[in-house]
Amino acid sequence: MSTRSDHTGNQTVSAQDQMVSGSAWMTAGSIFSRILGAIYIVPWSIWFGTFFLQANALYGKGYNIYSFFLIAAIAGVPSAIAKQVAHYNALNEYGISVRLYKRGLVIALLTGISIALLLFVGAPLFTGGDRHLIPVLHSLAWAILIIPTMSLTRGYFQGFQQMAPSAISQFVEQLARVAYMLLTAFVIMYVMKGDWVSAVSQSTLAAAVGALCGLIVLGVYYWRRRDHFRGLVAGSNNELVVPAKQLYKEIIAQAVPFIILGAGITIFQLIDQYTFAPIMHLAGNYSDAYLNDLFALFGVNANKLIMITISLSSALAVTVVPLLSEAYTRGNKHEISGQLTNAFLMFEFVMIPAALGMAAVARPLNIVFYGQTQEALGSSILAFSSYLSILLGLYTVVSALMQGISQNRRAVHYFAVGTVVKFIVQWPLVYLLGAFGPLVATGIGLFVTCYLIIHSLDVQFGINYATIAKKTNGILLASIGTFAIARVVVMVGSLAGSNGRIISFVVTAIAATLGGYFYVYMTLKSRLADAIVGDRVAGIRRRLHIH
């Protein structure tokens, strides 16, 4: 395993170790945040009672629109900042990195204010005829004022390979958001017996509350590490002179593609949101309420749970960008090829067992979070979405890889091709397959985009497919074993004859524990984990007494 030296000549950790360490922090923060973002649904659904599916559909529709505006407000600046900061740090020009961050703050503040105003004032134009969405979008506009600055600061830390501040602030942000959501839902719906639309509006306002708390955490980290940053600036080469105008130009040039690629999954979800009901009305005489319920099942409920597993790949993607940027700056094609191979292997190592495991426990898991509401269809959609999450996660990773090597324009072109494919197949698939149609169309569109990107990476830098294939066999065998064990537990659990939340939770927990332990045991026993994650897993093997 190769190591690199910094500008002082000291040995630094290998790129793989940096990727693993960074991914560990980002994965932990992202997973815990996603889990919190899913667990809240249990009490939330109970307090909304018969209004739950309508409330959840409204919440999901509002968040899809908000997510698109948020990505526009953030404007890809955090990832662009992380990439450019890593670039200048690799040149020992830390002073330019600091100036880059300060210029980015100006852009973040301006875009945050302008996009928040656009969403607030223009809310009636984005509702698609659902008047209930107006107060929801108004409440979400406040979060857009805060989140760009918070996200930019996370990107700055990531550019220095400091992932802990981002991960911890992400967790605190989600914790505060969920706490506010549950408190207001309990008071409005359970205590005051109030209006469900008002309760949903307060639940979406929670995004602003959480963002403020996350920003405070980042501020504390920055204050504590200010001497460290000052020391790096003092030891800079100071050989490059980059005017402020050029810094702004670099940020914007890097940021615009991040907007499109970062919004990729959201764009596909918005296509579903605005086309599903019109297509279904042509397919049959369905009521708006029924179609809202169907949209909640595939566009909100299942999506909320699979995002837990997709967050694994998202965490990896965030870690890969600055590392690849450094290698690209040095012009080291061999190192780039190695990092690409490592990135794909780490993605497979965590994503495949997670997706198959969730598919195996889809039925009890769906009952735990959403109760008996259209249980059979909801469980089937969740299982299908779990398989689909592998493609969604792969898209997140490969688009980040392209950005890390400054192939932004090409990546946007490939995404545009996938989006066109999604549009072409959307109508016939929704017409024929109903609620499964949008999911199949998304899978086809993202498959095309991922294929084009991976082929391009292979042509330019070479991907060691032989190494990937050899280790993929081990990952697949262990993952299929995990799936089989979890399925057996679920089948045995179904003999209990109860579909209640408590029994379903117990079954899910047992299946996840046994299946997860099997995967860990097999990958440690075969030394597959060592080959992918590194030598640090030896400590886990000793603690589990695996020889």
Would you kindly provide a written description of the structure presented here, covering whatever features stand out?
It is a multi-pass membrane protein. Pfam families: Polysacc_synt. The chain has about 550 residues and is mainly α. Helices cover about 85% and strands about 0% of the residues. Strands 1-2 form a two-stranded antiparallel ribbon. Strand 1 (about 5) and strand 2 (about 10) form a beta hairpin. Helix 3 crosses helix 11 (about 265-285), helix 4 packs across helix 10 and helix 18 (about 465-495) packs antiparallel against helix 19 (about 500-525).
Task: Characterize the main sheet.
Answer: 2 strands, antiparallel
Structural class: mainly alpha
- C-alpha end-to-end distance: 23 Å
Low-confidence stretches: 1-16
SSE sequence, one letter per element: EEHHHHHHHHHHHHHHHHHHHHH
The proportion of residues in beta strands is: under 5%
- Count of individual helical segments: 21
DSSP, total strands: 2
Q: Strand order within the widest sheet?
A: 1-2
Q: What radius of gyration results from the CA coordinates?
A: 23 Å
Percentage of residues in helical conformation: over 70%
General shape: globular
Q: Whole-number average pLDDT?
A: 83
InterPro entries: PG_synth_SpoVB, Poly_Biosynth_Transport, Polysacc_synth
Pfam families: Polysacc_synt (PF01943)
Organism: Levilactobacillus tujiorum
Membrane topology: Multi-pass membrane protein
